[in-house]
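Need the bound structure for pyridoxal-5'-phosphate, inputs here:
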Amino acid sequence: MPWNAIETPYLRVDQPRFDNNIQRLNCHLNALNTPLRPHVKTVKSLPAVKAIFNGGTGPITVSTLKEADFFAQHGFDDQIYAVGIAENKLPHVKRLIEQGIDLKIILESETQACNVVEFCRLHDVVIPTLVEVDCDGSRAGLTPDSQALMAVSQLLADAQLFKGVLLHAGGSYGCSTRAEKVAAAENERATAVRVKDQLAGVDIACPIVSIGSTPTAHFAQDLSGVTEVRAGVYVFFDLVMANINVCSLDDIALSVVTTVIGVKPEKGWILIDAGWMALSRDRGTAHQAIDYGYGMVLDAAGRPLDGWVVESTSQEHGIIKHRAGLTDIPSDIQVGDQLRILPNHACATASQFDKYYVSNAEDELIDEWPRFNYWT
Ligand SMILES: Cc1ncc(COP(=O)(O)O)c(C=O)c1O
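Answer from helper R.:
Posting the output first, comments after.
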């Protein structure tokens, strides 16, 4: 099928870039002797995850139990569900464990730990559980060195459910210099190892020490004491990652292809058929070095239209303007032309679509990868 037979807006993956991004992190982590547990929340697609594992079914991180179910059905039997557990999901977790899936959950409070222990006792099931540790104050997790962390771990260990610790350095998304990212990675590692050692001091073994985000995974210099690293958005990268210098614009493997549906030279506007339904509402670059609005504009061949961004959106319309207020629209842009929009946040933009159209280095359409969304 030729590209122009596909209705816009659609999602396009540049496979050579996707492959390079996977290769880059694999090489880095291989050199540090630490396995990767990719977070499949970004791609939510079997062919994409198979490509990450070169056809295999390695350990994965999931963000929903729908991902857990789907990948379990396709042979991925080692999973961490890396969102703090809610009691209403425990029956679903039990079903997966009873199907033979080594599914681990995470939690960060005594209430959750008591619920899990009680559920396991009542239903005669073992749910392997990791305690989430907060290394930089950016989201969830128990404070390192705290009484609460030791108490929750002990509760789980007494019930033979404790499996280890999980950390996610969310603060690394605010680190733009190399030194900051290296420090965030080392803080994530060192905090994890400190907690592991404290637990060893009270005879609680920590078989899993799981850390990671895309920035820290790429900038870690040493991973000793860690058993695995997690990262998700690294396969596609996006403008948020480019803005903090984790990748370059040329590494971004995902774009939304859109059609020009209006040109307003008097206003300096180009109207496109990609609004927030296609691009998502994510404005992750709003407070970064370069604000790309709802996305950066490329021509149909993937060449940047310098300074042009999707400045505003409604449901199915996008308005492209120049960031510096230039009103001279490139003269060759006409109604009916196609453009590509690089996403602020690949996970959010991908989640607006149900498939990827995949291109090779020769710009040929070589595959379609179905993807899924939602929770149940
Ligand atoms: C618990 C956890 N681990 C790993 C990741 C992957 O990080 P990234 O999106 O930076 O690839 C995320 C992302 O949200 C996460 O929440």
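Comments: The pocket of pyridoxal-5'-phosphate is lined by residues 39, 61, 82, 168, 212-214, 230-234 (CB under 6 Å). The first helix runs from residue 15 to 31.
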